[in-house]
Write a structure and sequence with these properties.
Blueprint (H helix, E strand, L loop, with lengths): L1 H16 L12 E3 L7 E5 L6 H17 L2 E5 L6 H14 L3 E4 L8 H9 L3 E5 L10 E4 L3 H16 L3 E7 L5 H14 L7 E8 L4 H14 L3 E6 L2 H13 L5 E4 L3 H4 L14 E3 L2 H16 L10 E3 L5 E3 L1 E2 L5 E4 L4 E3 L4 H4 L4
Parallel strand pairs: 2-3, 2-4, 4-5, 5-6, 6-15, 7-8, 7-9, 9-10
Antiparallel strand pairs: 1-3, 11-16, 12-13, 14-15
Helix pairs in contact: 2-10, 3-4, 5-6, 7-8
Bound molecules: alpha-L-rhamnopyranose.
Length: 348
Amino acid sequence: MKKKILSAILCTVMAVTALAGCGTGKSAASAGGKTAGEETCAILVKSAGNPYNKKMIEGFQEIMDAQGIKYVVKEPEEASAEAQIKMVNELVAQGVSSIAIAGNDPDALQPALEEAMNKGIKVACMDSSVNADSRMLFVNQAGIDIIGETLMEAIYDITGGEGQWAILSATSQATNQNAWIESMKTVMQQEKYAGLELVEVAYGDDEYQKSVDQTLALLSNYPDLKAICAPTTVGIMAAAKVLQDESSPVKLTGLGLPSEMADYIGDDDAHSCPYMYLWNPIDIGRLTAYVSLALVDGSITGAAGETFTAGDLGEYTITEASDGGTEVVLGPPFAFTPDNIADWKDVY
Ligand code: RAM
């Protein structure tokens, strides 16, 4: 019951605030859904093997199935722009109606995506944007600055405002993580954060083992480290396990899936993560599906000021994005704490 109430509150908050984006991937394309229409909508995520991406795909598929629209899922083996360019080219050759992509790089995909748009394919991005010229619309999970401010405040809180901290990120080219990190660095300029020293931004490439290794390296290179912020679901889970297994006094926060982080969230010394944040990745997939369908049927073009209805998610208005393009925003990040993690761990 409590879970339902929380879920309803989160959905309401997200719907009121507006929209967001998503993705998932593996090397082979898999088609699903019904074949009622001529349209085929594609979703291309950052990489295969990331449960967050699976959740986004799940939401996308749910809406496409409900609408009887064919879809294609593309999941590169590794989170690189090169792998995604190859898949975009395949989708263009296949003649899909739309491509929704979580970009592994802001600029590198521009020629391939422009080529797609020139051929009449509707291009949106979700979760991690491609640049303004490479897309018609970005489904943004939450405003960049609200994520940066929220994470910086969490680091301030769990360190007591003093000492060394590090970031464990995804890939060095990821648009979303880099935007959040830049935002954190901007917030850190304020006098309030003068006692905090960011010693390193490490990259685990959204690979579990690499993220484990990077966490171990941070612990050994910075004996006085007080906290790690991992703005990636893969990184935070790897770091949480390392810190807990090592009985490390270093504390962790960032962006994580409640299903993967339930064992690590707690207020006591036995747990590595006092609290963390995320949004609903399934809803990003759902919203991305509605955006793709609206671009394909021509009810939106991606211009600021346009509105559309995303089923049960509600009404959304397209707004200007900070990179000169346009976006819809799902809603603010949600805090997962020792008090509510049990309610969420089976949801996503
Ligand atoms: C990872 C991915 C994804 C990001 C989440 C928070 O799963 O890098 O792009 O949005 O973390």
